[in-house]
């Protein structure tokens, strides 16, 4: 068999694939949490306020949208890193990690805080 460029960096490509799969698992968990919140809210017989129905629906929809966005981001990121590994131009991006983490903490705090208050 002929050796390819990818075969020179097998460990890096396998690590890239594991990272991609971790993003997929996280996105599926996000989608699942959205469905869980909506189902739990509407299965509960006692309604505290009409706004909670709307909030539960918004959280469910946003969880699905965020999960789908993560799948797209993971695919783009995987393909980009694959090329960077082969071209030996890979640089870790900490700004993206900080931005995504900050955004998620803020959104979770706002929505779940509001949901638990009402």
Automatic annotation (TrEMBL):
Q: Which domain of life is it from?
A: Bacteria
> Among its keywords, does the record have Aminoacyl-tRNA synthetase?
no
Q: What are the entry keywords?
A: Cell membrane, Membrane, Transmembrane, Transmembrane helix
Q: How does it sit in the membrane?
A: Multi-pass membrane protein
Q: Which GO terms describe its cellular component?
A: plasma membrane
Under Pfam families, the record lists:
DUF202 (PF02656)
Q: Which residues cross the membrane?
A: 20-42, 54-76, 97-117
Localization in the cell? Cell membrane
Per the database entry, which stretches of residues form a coiled coil? none
Span of domain DUF202: 12-82
Which PANTHER family does this one have? DUF202 DOMAIN-CONTAINING PROTEIN (PTHR34187:SF2), FGR18P (PTHR34187)
Its recorded name reads DUF202 domain-containing protein
């Amino acid at each position: 068999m002929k050796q390819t460029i990818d075969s020179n960096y097998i460990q890096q490509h396998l690590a890239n694939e594991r990272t991609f799969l971790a993003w997929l698992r996280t996105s599926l968990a996000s989608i699942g949490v959205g469905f869980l919140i909506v189902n739990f809210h509407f299965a509960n017989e006692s309604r505290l306020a009409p706004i909670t129905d709307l909030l539960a629906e918004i959280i469910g929809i946003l969880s699905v949208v965020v999960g789908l966005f993560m799948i797209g981001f993971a695919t783009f990121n995987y393909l980009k890193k694959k090329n960077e590994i082969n071209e030996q131009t890979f640089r870790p991006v900490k700004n993206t990690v900080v931005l995504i983490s900050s955004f998620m903490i803020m959104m979770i705090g706002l929505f779940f805080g509001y949901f638990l208050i009402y």
